[in-house]
Design goal:
The complex is a heterodimer. Chain A has helices spanning 2-20, 26-37, 62-74, 78-85, 97-102, 106-113, 145-166, 187-200, 204-217, 222-230; strands spanning 41-46, 55-59, 89-91, 117-125, 128-137. By secondary structure, chain A is α+β, with helices and mostly antiparallel strands. Chain A folds into two domains: 2-177, GAF domain (Beta-Lactamase); 182-244, Arc Repressor Mutant, subunit A. Chain B is globular and about 50 Å long. The chains are: A alpha+beta, B alpha+beta.
Chain lengths: 248, 242
């Protein structure tokens, strides 16, 4: 089910990347989400710092850019909430009472800037935080269930691309990875990532990067490497690159 | 059935209006109490993710085999059928049932012979399914099934209650946040298992006991531990650890 939708989204992002002729980036996922989720515009901020310090990687129009800036200036808004909670912040009608209570400064300012509905998605894998994907509509309109699902999958795609770029991972071309190997929703991958923080003495983001790098360098499926680590058949050892480490 | 525990459970499950309501803790309460109240071996709960799949959110034990089995149900099994139809699905003897061959094999490996899936449903909205497992073949006690469904219904109303009726956005926010918290809990289990030299099931118990004894949310403790701002010591140093 998900595999097919994810495949479709992966191709939309690859199509966006083909426009500028470079490898796929999180910005491409942001740009492709506009048509994919049927919103007016989108922005993507990158950063793992809880206190802010995010930088705007991409904004598809002036309103999106303004929405991202307003939140930094005012210190409130859906991006900040999504980043803090690990779940999306969804406001189908920025002019309603709920939105006004939630973001007393941001909601009216965003309406004035031209947004009427706003949806922010954390770029996160559990405790790993990489940024936020924001979407807006110029009229009040909730995301349908399929649109919400697609928005989440665009956010998943952006997360992976962002983490790969941050880890100086190999450039991602469409053919490089099967979407079925996306690292989400397998408990063993999350458990193995947690184990690697101890084995390697690194934070959770770097542990996940090392896990993916090991799988990539050895041409193994991520889920299989994770399974070996959880079963304690494989240990990774502190050290720089993704070179294959010894088997336990 | 323990009547006292049953009434306490209903009271706790309806107490979702409190300010610090937490979906993960709430659903763990549901699976823990279902396992204790009903004549079953294990209980698991899956929630629908708008990405288009069912995802494991809580289980009465964190035994790896049970979690794998529940994870598999995203693709095949009584939970998926129950979720799609919105109706209970049961198999009194999985070895004589050819509906879900892969699931039946995984269930046997996990030590289960019979399964009952109960929908978490309010009118036309199905948010997930509760899964009851027994280690011996045979039909489920009809009283157990009735009480199990009642617990699932109360939990569903608790989840959907007001939040979705008033604001669908808020329900989706909470459910997605809970799904991400579940990932944080798995990451914390891994880190703790490696640090203490225990298996994932034991790591979960240490994590849960730490949260309970400090009166904190499980998901908060898990996040703080993964981020390195919370120390967790093993209250029961290993003697029979794996």
């Amino acid at each position: 089910m998900t595999g097919n939708r994810l495949g479709t989204i992966w191709r939309l992002v690859a199509g966006q990347a083909a426009v500028h002729g470079a490898g796929m980036s999180a910005g491409d996922a942001c740009a492709a989400a506009v048509a994919g989720v049927r919103v007016t515009g989108a922005w993507l901020s990158a950063g793992s710092d809880r206190e802010g310090g995010h930088h705007l990687m991409r904004a598809t129009d002036e309103v999106s850019r303004r929405l991202a800036e307003l939140q930094l200036t005012l210190g409130e808004g859906p991006s900040l909430d999504a980043f803090a909670s690990g779940g999306p912040a969804l406001a189908s009608d920025l002019a309603d009472r709920e939105a006004g209570l939630r973001w007393p400064a941001f909601a009216p300012a965003a309406c004035q800037a031209g947004a009427a509905a706003i949806f922010a998605f954390p770029l996160a894998v559990g405790a790993i935080r990489a940024g936020v994907l924001g979407l807006y509509r110029d009229r009040p309109d909730p995301l349908t269930d399929p649109q919400l699902g697609d928005a989440l999958l665009f956010a998943d795609t952006a997360t992976l691309l962002l983490l790969n770029a941050q880890a100086d991972g190999p450039p991602v071309a469409e053919s490089d990875r099967r979407p079925a190997d996306f690292p989400w929703h397998r408990a063993e991958i999350d458990q193995a990532t947690g184990m690697l923080t101890e084995q390697l003495g690194v934070n959770i983001t770097d542990a996940f990067a090392r896990l993916r790098a090991y799988a990539y360098a050895n041409d193994l499926r991520l889920a299989d490497v994770a399974g070996d680590i959880v079963a304690r058949r494989l240990r990774l050892h502190p050290g720089p690159g993704p070179s294959p480490d010894s088997n336990a | 059935m323990d009547g006292q525990l049953l009434s306490e459970t209903f009271v706790e499950l309806t107490d979702t209006m409190v300010a610090d309501f937490d979906v993960i803790d709430f659903l763990h309460l549901l699976t823990d109490r279902s396992a204790r109240l009903l004549d079953v071996s294990a209980v698991g709960l899956l929630l629908a993710d708008p990405r288009g799949e069912l995802r494991v959110v809580a289980a009465s034990s964190e035994a790896a085999r049970l979690l794998e089995l529940l994870q598999l149900e995203g693709d095949q099994g009584p939970c998926l059928d129950c979720f799609r139809s919105g109706l209970p699905v049961t198999s009194a003897d999985l070895s004589a049932d050819d509906r879900w061959p892969q699931f039946a094999v995984a269930a046997r490996l996990a030590g289960f012979a019979a399964v009952q899936a109960l929908p978490m449903r309010l009118r036309d909205q199905v948010v997930g399914a509760l899964n009851l497992f027994r280690d011996a073949p045979g039909g489920f006690d009809p009283d157990d099934v009735r009480v199990g469904q009642a617990l699932a219904d109360v939990a569903t109303i608790g989840l959907l209650h007001e939040r979705s009726m008033r604001r669908r956005d808020a329900l989706n926010e909470q459910l997605q946040s809970a799904l991400n918290s579940r990932v944080v809990i798995e990451q914390a289990k891994g880190k703790l298992a490696e640090r203490l030299g225990v298996d994932m099931s034991e790591a979960f118990i240490v994590l849960r006991d730490h949260a309970r004894s400090h009166n904190r949310r499980l998901s908060e403790v898990a996040r703080a531990f993964v981020e390195g701002t919370e120390a967790i010591i093993n209250p029961r140093p290993r003697s029979d650890a794996v």
